[in-house]
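Example record used in the benchmark description.
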Amino acid sequence: MTNTPLLALLLVAASGVAIALQSPLNAALGRYIGSSLGAATISFGVGFVLLLVVTIAYGDGGRLLDAAHAPRILLTGGLLGAFLVWATLYSVSVLGVLTMAAVLILGQILAALAIDHVGLFGIEARPVSINRLLAAGLVAAGVVLSRY
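Model output (structure tokens):
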């Protein structure tokens, strides 16, 4: 797959659509089966099966074994993803899709500011600037506008 900024932008935009759709779908599943945790488990299970099939189809199945030697901190992404799925499917019924998505984005931006500033996990460090703080402030204003 070619690494181009346009492709990356399109993939991230499509992922944003997926998050907006995933939360109410999972919330509806949770209502249907009577368990938000159960719905999150099913969501992760279905996603796991798809990713496993695609990984094997691309010939990267053997690479999965290399994770046994990875630093343990690098394996916590799945925990964070599980929390994300559960928290959004729980919150979407309370906040609505727009406010849930806006708060999710605000949380991502605040964390991204810190991650960029420190250069966490090998990411190139980028200092906090007034423009970046203003961007976060605009998203925070969007959260307020989406709710009130």
